[in-house]
Specification:
275 residues; 4 helices; six-stranded mixed beta sheet; alpha/beta; five-stranded mixed beta sheet; 14 strands; single chain
Length: 275
């Protein structure tokens, strides 16, 4: 199903103290798919999160960089969105599943807000829990499936940036959600061999499926090719789009081959690789 990325993402302000943007930006990609972004005035990482609705349950992918519900009201926002969705799609029994692209702090801090929420399963982002939940312990190369009811996500273990990184493909929209493995920013690599394998696998995976957009969880580049914003900035007035293409995914693969065995920081037009 088609969707829209005709959106101006909140990107901070010269004075974080006087920022008037919402704590969480909400964008409906389509009726059943919501993209959220944390305000840079709340946390400079400003991660993106994804809420996907199925017939039986919704999934929230990542929970942001701030634990406090006062400063970062993620659960309240998600509850409001589910209630809004219910208005057009009433249900008596509906679950919420919370998954993660990986376990770094800026993607898991909101987990505690969902503790005790009825009908909610929060899967820990650590490697053990990820292997157990998706079945990667016995088959690390498998494509796992998460059924939301009429909407089945394909899930891959994609280490390199983080050993428990997971990439999600949504056949309903064609969105490939790559977390911090592939995005317009600094691709930090903790395991080069694993990253090399992961990027090659993602290219092959995307070749066999209709991918509309590759969506990571941050924007760190400027619109000037090869130039990023400084780490920790809370104002990014000249951001490129969130979405990337399969061709840009191939560009990452080519960059990995070009870098080879050399450690260092390497700038490319749409991303940087920090090995």
């Amino acid at each position: 199903m088609p969707g829209s990325l005709d959106v101006q993402w909140i990107h901070g302000s010269p004075s974080a103290k006087h920022n008037t943007d919402p704590d969480i930006q909400v964008h409906f990609y389509n009726e059943h798919t919501v993209i959220l972004r944390q305000n840079k005035a709340v946390h400079y990482e400003a991660p993106f999160m994804f809420l996907l609705f199925g017939n039986a349950q919704a999934v929230l992918i990542d929970t942001g960089a701030t634990e406090s519900a006062e400063w970062f009201p993620l659960r309240r926002t998600v509850d409001d969105l589910i209630e809004r969705w219910f208005a057009g799609h009433p249900r008596d029994d509906y679950g919420l599943l919370v998954l993660h692209t990986h376990a770094h702090d800026d993607h898991v801090q909101g987990d505690a807000q969902f503790a005790g929420r009825p009908g909610t399963t929060v899967v820990d982002a650590g490697l053990g829990a990820v292997r157990d939940y998706f079945g990667f312990a016995d088959e690390p190369e498998k494509v796992a499936h998460v059924d939301l009811g009429g909407r089945v996500l394909e899930c891959l273990l994609t280490p390199g940036h983080h050993r428990a990184a997971v990439t999600f493909y949504d056949p309903y929209t064609g969105l490939l959600l790559t977390g911090d493995t592939i995005y317009r920013g600094r691709l930090y690599v903790e395991d080069w061999a694993a990253f090399h394998r992961t990027v090659g696998r993602l290219v092959e995976f995307a070749r066999a499926r209709p991918v509309t957009h590759v969506l990571g969880c941050h924007i760190e580049m400027t619109s000037e090719p090869g130039v990023d914003y400084r780490i920790g900035t809370t104002y990014q007035p000249d951001e490129p789009p969130l979405q990337m293409t399969v061709d840009q995914l191939r560009d990452v693969q080519a960059a990995v081959e070009e870098i080879g065995a050399r450690p260092g920081r390497y700038a490319f037009p749409d991303f940087m690789i920090w090995r």
